Fold this protein.
Amino acid sequence: MRRRIAFFLSVLMAAFVLCSCGGNVVVQNEVKRRSATGPSWTVLMYMCGSTLEEDYSRAGEVLSSLSYDLPENVNVVIETGGSRTWSLEDVYCEYLQRFEVQKNGLRMVDQTASASMGEADTLYEFIEWGMGAYPADNTIVVLWDHGGGPLGGVAYDSEYNFDSLELNELQEALSRLKSKPDMIGFDASLMSNLETASALSLYADYMVASEDIMPMSGWDYRGLFEYISENPTASVSEVGSVICDGVKNTASGQEADFVSMAVSDLSKATMLSLAFDGMADTMVSATDDLNSLRDLSYAMNELEFLGGNSIWEGYSNLIDIGELTAVVSEHIGSPASNIVNAINEMVVYRSMSEYHNTSSGLSVYYPKNRDSQALGEYRDICMSDSYMEYIEKTVIDVDIPGRLYSYEDSAAWQNYNDMAYENVMTAAADINGRYILSAVHPEIITRAGVNFYMYSSKDAGYIYLFRDYSAKYDASAGGYIYEFGGRLPELNSTPVAMYLVSQNTCFDIYSIPVIYEGRLTNIRVSKSKQADDYGEYKILGLWNGVDEYSGMADRKYNELKTGDIIIPIYEVYGKSGDKSYVEGDKIRIGFGGAKITDKLIDDGDYIVSYTAEDMFGITYECDTNNLVSSKGTYKIMDY
């Protein structure tokens, strides 16, 4: 049960508001079904409306679309709740209501007093009731709402301070059932992870979920109903593949870029967890060797992160387990075949967008953002003692509650600590205009990026624009070398702050913090690595990100339209606290739309600096150097 007030989603508790959505979805009379033969199916849909209903009326849209002429051997039942307002007549926030799907609408079959949909009891009572009232050869349980990964859980009830179902509560609810469902499905973000699969492995046969953000369009329910109606003898895994393909086929616009659906055979979760533990043991061994840990840390910087991954978006702290396996195997010699085989045994079907074409279908928690409380909570759900040991031996800058393993005992840290103390770093331009980061001990640095700040007379300070990670290590120079091409990203000819949030072999994803309609949000953009260096970025849309308290990841990508006004947000160099950022000038989107392109930097006064990240994830920003741009020429001021 996660009861934390959402940061960007918290609003005053509204009075009950009921308004029409243009049609009476709820009907009174039961309609005769068409006859059928073959195995029976029951779909139990746990619909927590939350802000998806309050902000977008999305739950009401889905309910309005569910009418279907089901045969006698197929039952679909929905429980509604979790929202302070509903956009449909006869759906009320004062109650938990249960509806049957019919060909002419939804028929209410039960109604009880409101209760938190983030409580194990609420979920258990619905599933136990549904499996008793609608017994079937095959039962699918669908959890509909936002998702927050293995720590945040699913079903954020906005009537109860965004209380959510955490993994231990999902286990509790499912463990009390008289018989287990055949499939647990998540029409929610970030729930296809090894931690969730391990937690549910004893209580269902299959899991269907998304590794990344679930498109707002979600599951194709009518396609699902048609398939099981026409193919009642299909296996549960075959039905799962239809669900995955339905998500991919119905996703529209830029949301289609992030489809990452998978069907997992939960009977194989223990085998994969054991293989993962074996790999994690190899990772622990790397903490006793400075070079091995450095190589591993260096490679992990290149991993793709799922969900949010910036100070403005929030952090989901999820990486693909298959990509992690490849990195570990390449750099420290883990027995990759064991875990790769285990992944392939468990993930029986994948349906991925081009952006996720290298994803395995399952993610795993990785603390990119080191939060003390989150790391303490993760210990309770981590499926691998060795992986938790690795985390505790490499997270040296956070006090993890109840820490069992001391990083100070590892040989890598002992060697590193001496070097880190001595590791003076300086940055300067050479006579050829290259910007060079020199370090006493460059061997402990795993990544270096060059930061660009532009002077703003309005704010009487330098504002952050971009960090370029294209600096390359050069052993002969004793550090990193960066050659500036003179271009920085601009939105409709206005310099904006842009943060790298994810990457893979084909794409980079960036995020631009802005204010839109009075709300802090982010413009997400992608850039293909196959495009030319100065090619245009693809705008994915406005995304509200991940709530920093609950982990709830928003599902909606809003389109930037002609006439929209956005206000860019900038960090100010050298400032902290409430005054660490400023608002830029308004940008109105014209008839030509919004475009982000790498352009020659404007004339003006800039500063640059290096940010270096070491093998334990500690970052350092070096002193700045001046960069002057005038009439198409630029120079870092040292010579």
